[in-house]
Amino acid sequence: MPTMADVARSAGVSVATVSHVLNGTRPVLPSTRQAVLDAVDALGYTPNTLARSLVTSRTRSIGLAVSAISNPYFTEILQGVEAAALAAGYSLLIADPHDDPAHERKVVQLLHERRVDGMIVAPSARPHDLVAYLGRHAVPAVFLDRVLPATEPVAGGTAPGRGLFDQVCAENAGPMADLTGHLAGLGHRRIGLVAGLPGLSTTEERIAGYRQGLAAAGLAFDQDLVVSGLSESAGAERATAALLALPAPPTALVTANNAMTIGALRTLRERNLAVPGGIALGCFDDFAWADLFSPRLTAIAQPSREIGARAVDVLLERLAEPGRPPRTVRLPCAFVHRTSCGCPERRDEAVGSPPAGTGGTTEPSTPLERGTAS
């Protein structure tokens, strides 16, 4: 097996120069760098990652802790994280916290003990122990998809929330307001919302957007029309049944994530309630087969892969510049107009070329600049 010394002899440089090229610890001339890389390829040299980590105190690995990895939304985020990490020369260690605060704290500690250089985490609804652990051990981390306030309530007062942690997520309130407003514009006056798990920022922001959409349409907010589906399919089945059991049930329904869309559709089918003839439907979260349903699902599409890739970029920037101020990066969503909302099939939808995986007409849901820090 070739050694670093073999690479140095082949390239006509010192072992230290080879180390600097492979580890990026000191600038070298482009011609020298290329000579080293050519020698690495010719000899088939593989760096000793363990030895390199002992020298540099870096493992070139990233820990990723996200729940519901089987969810298509998080699967696409994972693909974005993995591609960006690999392109930057980092490996990925993955754990599923199961949206359980105690398990979340445990898996984050396990990732930390494996000496990852930094972490990307989608926080649970009660992330106090997570934040405390990351802060106490000064772990470079980026919060993904779900954002935290500057402080969070705890027994006896408040505790640090996002602290020195960067955050990357999609816009939630504006797109949900657009979706709700679209249904109101079609004449619906009782629009139900199958909301997410209480305590998650995505849940709170999407409820806020729903209320904004109602207000913009001149409709009063009715708490009875908002039922939590707990961010999962079975919960959405129960929530949809509760909404349909109201003395004045909704004529339109908004589901706040893709798993809950499936649960809502299951309940509507069991009740023989046709979409959109019996009830109109709009969904937050698009997914690859949304245009295969009949009718095709009108949805808010989140830039899931871009969220994952951007989280890696932000983490690497944090590793390169630990003292920089924390920031929250919001990425815009797209309104994917199909037919479950009750609109007729449009010619541009039937024969156009929408973005891959959407199968409908898309347009920006909010005019935010990509990567805007707040």
What do these coordinates show?
It is built from 13 helices and 16 strands. A 7-stranded mixed β-sheet has the order 2-1-3-4-7-13-16, sandwiched between helices. Strands 9-8-10-11-12-14-15 form a 7-stranded mixed β-sheet. The chain has a two-stranded antiparallel sheet with strand order 5-6. The C terminus is likely disordered. The longest helix has 17 residues. The protein is α/β, with parallel strands linked by helices. Helix 6 runs parallel beside helix 7.
In terms of quaternary structure, what is this? single chain
The total strand number stands at 16
Low-confidence stretches: 153-162, 347-358, 366-374
Helix share, percent: 40-55%
Please identify the structural class as seen in this structure. alpha/beta
Helix and strand run: HHHHEHEHEHEEEEHEHEHEHEEHEEHEE
**Main β-sheet description:** 7 strands, mixed
List keywords for this structure.
374 residues, alpha/beta, 13 helices, 41% helix, disordered C terminus
How do the helices and strands line up, and which of them pair or pack?
Blueprint: H1 4-11, H2 15-23, H3 30-43, H4 49-56, E1 61-65, H5 72-87, E2 91-95, H6 101-113, E3 118-121, H7 128-136, E4 141-144, E5 151-154, E6 157-160, E7 166-170, H8 173-185, E8 191-195, H9 201-216, E9 226-228, H10 233-244, E10 252-255, H11 258-270, E11 280-284, E12 298-301, H12 304-320, E13 328-331, E14 334-337, H13 347-351, E15 361-364, E16 372-373
Parallel strand pairs: 1-2, 1-3, 3-4, 4-7, 7-13, 8-9, 8-10, 10-11, 11-12
Antiparallel strand pairs: 5-6, 12-14, 13-16, 14-15
In brief:
Helix content is 41%, strand content 18%. It contains 13 helices and 16 strands.
